[in-house]
User: Fold these one by one.
Assistant:
Number 1:
Amino acid sequence: MTTKSQTSAANGVVVSIGTTPYRTEVLAGGHALIADEPRSAGGADAGPGPYELLLASLGSCKAITLRMYADRKGWPLERVALSLRHSRRHGADCEACDQTEPRLDHIDVEVQLVGDLDDAQRARLLEIADRCPVHRTITGDLRVVSTLVVS
């Protein structure tokens, strides 16, 4: 059984919703933000939606990982810019995929590397981007376990 104290922000992220449709208050590492659905989905568009937050997490992790790697190597990486998009694709759209049951969710990431880098460095950085912890988490064997908290 989980108690209220186990759902504190010290353990990660706390998300709550009241009576305002789809507006959630998020406390992450002592930082407060709002997540919401767009007006077209019944929300007030008061903040990014859940998939936008997922893309932001993935993009941030990739950018940080690239910055760390380039710094450690002493490479002249001046800036990283990533553009991420989530879509749902039908299985037929993924006939070339190497999976027997292709995923319908798809994330496209465009990576822009600014700096006096050679082709080999750019290629290596693109490989490294896909090794960031969040990328590995969402593409690995992820298990999410929900537990009811008694209040």
Note: Residues 4-41 form one domain.
Number 2:
Amino acid sequence: MAGSSLLVLIDDIAAVLDDVALMTKMAAKKTAGVLGDDLALNAQQVSGVRAEREIPVVWAVAKGSFVNKLILVPAALLISAFAPWAVTPLLMLGGAYLCFEGFEKLAHKFLHSQSDDKAEHAQLVEAVADPATDLVAFEKDKIKGAIRTDFILSAEIIAITLGTVADAPLMQQVVVLSGIAIVMTIGVYGLVAGIVKLDDLGLWLTQKPGQAARRIGGAILRAAPYMMKSLSVIGTAAMFLVGGGILTHGVPVVHHWIETVSQGAGGVAWLVPTLLNGVAGVIAGAVVLVVVQVIGKVWRAAKG
């Protein structure tokens, strides 16, 4: 009897671990869309920091990210326990924000001229090169800004994960949410650290005596700027796809319509939902951006 009870217990534990692994995989897949933008944003946040201070700044932001998730994970568990009805509205809000942020990036070149962007970049370079600049205060401002950005993106990741495990037992929710929080933080900031040091790696290789090393270093130096641009583009596209997917799943009529259209699409049925979610994301982002712009103008007018 004891032996069979032990086997049952082992089987139950294995089943729970299998469920946790499956839900963690699903949550990671759903939140992966946010990561491209997360990587690009955080790598850009440390631009302008002196080369020898890049890794310490990334580490400081990573510690802030862990603190953010220590706040967000318990908050998500409390919502799931005491207000499960709020999970879907929170996901919808997160999806709308993703679409808004993505569309704002598309609209940036129309709302801001290239001369403004170049002037801002020139001021940043000048400030860092100026010996009179308080570099400690400069770094602290960079870190605070990056941690604020991380809080928003982390909230989106946790909200999406919570939607995946909302119906699971509490212990599985704890394991999955905690696992996603830890893995995503280590993965994102490990990659950010690698990205911001790519140019240093390329430069170091170009100074080596071997011709192969110099060629590889030159290739890295040439590829690094394009990698940053690619991350930004991929991240923006992912925001529309993930955000649009969240919004369409939250509106049953739209979700069923997309399923119906996909079923009649034949060999490209797998692609249709992705494209329609992306279109929905672009439309939602445009609507939210217009609303935000109008509210901003009304608010500024009211303040005189």
Note: Confidence is low (pLDDT under 50) at residues 1-21.
